[in-house]
């Protein structure tokens, strides 16, 4: 996009001056919030579904919506840090809720796929993208606990890499995630986290 003077909006400039928030319309934010909120509300009742037609619907919904939801994590590269702006924070919370709702009715390979795709975003160069991905994963574990234990090995693999992150906020978020993992599983993961 272009800033008020016709100059291109730079990432550093947009974050520092919050041009993205002040000089551009955030119509996509309102659409995203409404869509993600609807998704979370619509999928919640499907958790624990066992009928074959419901199971097929859950699988198709998961396959159709997983990638678009996870790709939304990339937008955090262009937003102010979520701890500094309420709109960024709200989008993060609603996105986390939608991802939890995608995870709730599935198990096994789909849980592994979800964690691998979400945590794949932790390899991004941008710290806000990495932080959002860790927070999404943490929220899934916080709300669903042992229900998603089939994805533990994927999460531990990424967590061991992220303990070396250059940003202390990411490291702190990973440590909080590890504590939640240990609380859910009742096991210490320190041995598994060693490089």
Quick overview of this protein structure:
Helices cover 66% and strands 0% of the residues. The chain has 195 residues and is mainly alpha-helical. The model has no long low-confidence stretch (mean pLDDT 85).
The averaged pLDDT comes out at: 85
Reading the helices and strands in chain order gives HHHHHHHHHH
Query: Class by helix and strand content?
Result: mainly alpha
> What ranges have pLDDT less than 50 throughout 5 or more consecutive residues?
none
Main sheet?
A: none
Helix proportion: 55-70%
Shape: globular
What is the CA-atom radius of gyration, in angstroms? 18 Å
How far from one another are the termini?
42 Å
Summed up, the helix count is: 10
The amount of beta strand, in percent, is under 5%
Task: Count the beta strands.
Answer: 0
Task: Please provide a written account of the structure.
The chain is mainly α. The protein is 66% helix and 0% strand. The chain has helices at 11-17, 19-22, 27-43, 52-71, 86-103, 109-120, 127-144, 152-162, 168-185, 190-193. The radius of gyration is 18 Å and the shape is globular. The N and C termini lie far apart (42 Å).
Write the layout of secondary structure elements.
Elements: H1 11-17, H2 19-22, H3 27-43, H4 52-71, H5 86-103, H6 109-120, H7 127-144, H8 152-162, H9 168-185, H10 190-193
Helix pairs in contact: 3-5, 4-5, 4-6, 5-7, 6-7, 6-8, 7-9, 8-9
